[in-house]
Design goal:
about 400 residues; alpha/beta; Aspartate Aminotransferase, domain 1; 2 domains; binds pyridoxal-5'-phosphate
Length: about 400
């Protein structure tokens, strides 16, 4: 007999983004010239002053475990200013008490995972307006909860439909996850709609998990943190990260900020999971928050230029459109008019044109008919990618228009 595997773990699946990533890596190993537009990771190197701070910390012997909640200086820095936006510093919103209301985590990923573990039980639901980042659905399952997709309307550019989301909240709801700016649509959710969702969550004694890892990258308006919109901020769990704004994906530093009762539970279970985030990475994160922000503003400005270029190219290709990216670094291409599924389109683009995008169906059922294009790549590569996509569209590579 074979010993069983966990049902919770078996009920999860790998995302189709990963599938494309693996296929692309295989092709790249064979020497193929690919334009990689599937990856949600800044192409920039971490700014030098941040790397220097980590090196110095390691040399100075900061190579030990840190408190489970993270270095006090880092929590302090997060509480003072948690994000650099493309228009200068974005206020962190409500004042979080660095000692009781902030826990440093191993990326935003761990903050989201442990938040789900801390607040959900079997029989509860975690609601995700979709299309959305698929890891929330996996994290809900790992917590024994049921992930519930609440589809947003593609014809409304996947704007946050507060009525629909509020209507899906019930006594079973442990949390609603709002990813804003959104991965994959690039939308920044309307403040009034966010307020309504928070009110509905409060009235059912549920939490709103605000995933704001892209909060430092907005293009039209400075970002307003979700917790700052809430009359009852004790119902909002804010997740932040150094990965995207500071080009620090590999350093693995993020945080959860919110009510003490949740932060305390998350800090408690960290003792048995990662114990603490890598000490040198935490020193790097302190430098990111307290050091010069010109290098960070330069990256944000580069993303702004790419976004303009991407919008222009999409408009210039007959039959292609996308909701305008207001934040993050994604364009969600509308391919509903084509005959093939989003996965088949992504596979065709890779196999026949050497350009890699992520199939929208991987972001929940509502994402089918779309492909996510990441502009976290140099302008020259983005240009080449669009030239190839343009050729594929001209050659009707995705089948006749349905
Ligand atoms: C929406 C969203 N949330 C959270 C994360 C996690 O980022 P990290 O764990 O690197 O902070 C990502 C990374 O791609 C993301 O896209």
């Amino acid at each position: 007999m074979t010993p069983p595997l966990s049902e919770r773990v078996r009920s999860t699946s790998r995302s189709s983004i990963r599938h494309m990533f693996d296929l692309a890596n295989d092709e790249a190993r064979r020497g193929r010239d690919l334009v990689r537009l599937e990856i949600g990771e800044p192409d920039f190197d971490t700014p030098a002053h941040i790397v220097d701070a980590a090196t110095e910390a390691a040399r100075a012997g900061h190579t030990h475990y840190t408190p489970n909640a993270g270095l006090p200086e880092l929590r302090e820095a997060i509480s003072r200013t948690s994000m650099h936006g493309s228009r200068g510093r974005v206020d962190a919103g409500p004042d979080f008490d660095p000692e009781r209301e902030i826990v440093v985590t191993t990326g935003g990923m761990e903050a989201l995972h442990l938040a789900a573990l801390a607040i959900a039980d079997p029989g509860t639901e975690i609601l995700c307006p979709t299309p959305t980042w698929p890891n929330y659905l996996t994290q809900a399952r790992l917590a024994g909860a049921t992930p519930v997709e609440v589809p947003l309307d593609p014809d409304d550019g996947f704007a946050l439909d507060a009525d629909r989301v509020a209507g899906a909240i019930s006594a079973a709801t442990a949390a609603v996850v709002l990813c804003t700016p959104s991965n994959p649509t690039g939308r920044v959710y309307d403040e009034a709609a966010v307020r309504r969702v928070i009110e509905a969550a409060v009235s059912h004694d549920a939490y709103v998990i605000a995933d704001e890892v892209y909060g430092g990258l907005t293009y039209d308006e400075p970002y307003r943190p979700v917790a700052s919109l809430a009359d009852a901020p004790e119902h909002v769990l804010t997740v932040g990260s150094f990965s995207k704004t500071y080009a620090m994906t590999g350093w693995r530093v993020g945080w959860l900020a919110g009510p003490e009762r949740v932060v305390e539970q998350v800090t408690k279970i960290r003792e048995a999971t990662t114990a603490s985030t890598a000490s040198v990475s935490q020193h790097a994160a302190i430098a990111a928050l307290t050091g010069p922000h010109e290098p960070i503003d330069e990256m944000a400005a580069a993303f702004g230029k790419r976004r303009e270029y991407v919008v222009e190219r999409i408009e210039g290709i007959d039959g292609l459109s996308a909701p305008s990216p207001e934040g993050a670094f994604y364009a969600f291409l509308d391919v509903r008019d084509w005959e093939k599924s989003s996965l088949a389109i992504a596979e065709t683009l890779l196999a026949d044109y050497g350009v890699v995008v992520a199939p929208g169906g991987g972001f929940g059922d509502a994402g089918e008919g779309f492909c996510r294009l990441s502009f976290a790549n140099g302008l020259d590569r983005i240009e080449e990618g669009f030239d190839r996509i343009e050729r594929a569209v001209a050659e009707k590579a995705f089948g006749p228009v349905g």
